[in-house]
Amino acid sequence: MTIHAPSDTTSFEACLRLFERYPLAITLHPAGGGSLSMVLFSRAAGPAGFFVLTQARDDLFVIRSWNRHDGVDQVIRPGEPVPAAIRQVISASMPVPHDGALLGWVTDSQVTAMLAVHGRPPEPWDSPNPWGAVLPVPEIRVMPMAGTRELLHWPPFTASPLGDGRFWEYVERGEIVDIGPLIIQNPGRVFWVPSPDRRSARHGCIAVLGNLPADEYWLPAGVYTDHWTLREGIEPASAGL
Asked: Could you please report the per-residue DSSP string of 189-214?
């Protein structure tokens, strides 16, 4: 995904375009005065490829490294120049869906896999880190429905959602949908089941109790779990289904 901005587009205007074009990537921070942020992923930057772009005010953006030790901390204002490396990050990075987003991969109008997004930005960015802890980086976990090992029904980017580069093209084509509103409309029908070994909050499965229809797709009842687990032939608990 690349933001195709005209050569005379400023970095500030490119930031505005990101927030206008990718609402699914935006996180609202009420405690921060209502500021907005999104995570950007730059494959060209290697291990330090995650950045947090924050709209602090109408006339001010700030872009920072996901890990403060990687050193990027740049303000972006209207009409002010920024370093070439920062312009490259803004123009050629992929916005990552916001932390907690739950998406669906649609095949023939049926959700055949869920995409669980994990990526809570470090808060606050400039707080001390005395233990030198390694921050978990953002990720998208692809979770097909248990019992469906037919790879044709799995997303083509299953092994590396952020490395595909066409994520937002799939969204535009309706192959990836936001199933959050469907879940809100059907309370008590979708549950997160943590992994028994409690490795982290990111590990577990999703149980859907009953088929859930939407206008352009439907979400089948079942248990959705990490694709690596299914590849290894491990079936999750039924979770009461």
From this structure: SEEEEE-TT---TT-EEEEE-S-EE-
